[in-house]
């Protein structure tokens, strides 16, 4: 299937410090690509460049053939790419319904809110304030806000962070359902077992550059990946 997101030669530095160097990859509908690497590898910088929060110094970000590199974040959302954040960003004093409405296009607001709430398992919490939600529910709200935008490409930035294993197991089917609906997902995650379980392919970043890329079993047993990040191969 043709790629919906094509990243070519993406580079970003902060002063003399290179954060992302010459990163290239593609993402297709119905595919999860995992992005892993040690702290400071450049994962957050890459995601910020792919979502309009940062402007890359060099390189191309093409979304359905349209060049997006350097555009503002709201233009990425309008073009069909949305993201979650490591720290949930819901409006704490607003209800779940109001948070979803804020993310949805005005013309389809009611329909999108209902679908996002149902799809994320939050339909029974629509009229609760966000501050009343558990961390697991706030993580679901992050995903629901993405659903409400109607995005076709989703960047999940450590959406499992802070959750207990049982809560993670309950969130995994939600992510699988997004792919079943044809979304393309870049999954940034420190939990390697989650990435291995969900991803069709894995990209490993180290010091801002792609250290390895390929199918999970191949990448996670690569000696260079084991040495740089894992410490031991993942069975």
TrEMBL record:
The keyword Transport applies. CDD domains: ABC_Mj1267_LivG_branched (cd03219). InterPro entries: AAA+_ATPase, ABC_AA/LPS_Transport, ABC_transporter-like_ATP-bd, BCA_ABC_TP_C, P-loop_NTPase. It comes from the Bacteria. Residues 5-232 form the ABC transporter domain. GO terms for molecular function: ATP binding; ATP hydrolysis activity; L-isoleucine transmembrane transporter activity; L-phenylalanine transmembrane transporter activity; L-valine transmembrane transporter activity. GO terms for cellular component: plasma membrane. Pfam families: ABC_tran, BCA_ABC_TP_C. Keywords: ATP-binding, Nucleotide-binding, Transport. GO terms for biological process: D-alanine transmembrane transport; L-alanine transport; L-isoleucine import across plasma membrane; L-valine import across plasma membrane. This is ABC transporter ATP-binding protein. It comes from Sphaerisporangium rufum.
């Amino acid at each position: 299937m043709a790629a919906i997101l094509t990243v070519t030669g993406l580079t970003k530095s902060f002063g003399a410090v290179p954060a992302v160097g010459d990163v290239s990859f593609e993402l297709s509908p119905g595919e999860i690509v995992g992005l892993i690497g040690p702290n400071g590898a450049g994962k957050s910088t890459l995601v910020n460049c792919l979502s309009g929060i940062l402007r890359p110094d060099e390189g191309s970000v093409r979304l359905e053939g349209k060049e997006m590199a350097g555009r503002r974040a709201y233009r990425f959302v309008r073009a069909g790419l949305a993201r979650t954040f490591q720290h949930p960003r819901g409006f704490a004093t607003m209800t779940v319904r109001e948070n979803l409405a804020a993310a949805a296009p005005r013309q389809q607001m009611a329909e999108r809110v209902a679908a996002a709430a149902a799809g994320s398992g939050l339909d029974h919490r629509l009229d609760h304030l966000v501050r009343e939600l558990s961390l697991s529910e706030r993580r679901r709200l992050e995903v629901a806000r993405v659903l409400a935008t109607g995005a076709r490409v989703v960047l999940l930035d450590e959406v499992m962070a802070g959750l207990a294993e049982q809560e993670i197991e309950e969130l995994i089917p939600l992510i699988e359902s997004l792919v079943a609906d044809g979304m393309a997902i870049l999954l940034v995650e420190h939990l390697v077992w989650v990435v291995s379980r969900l991803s069709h392919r894995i990209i490993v970043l180290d010091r801002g550059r792609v250290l390895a890329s390929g199918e999970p079993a191949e990448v996670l047993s690569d000696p260079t990946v084991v040495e740089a990040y894992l410490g031991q191969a993942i069975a």
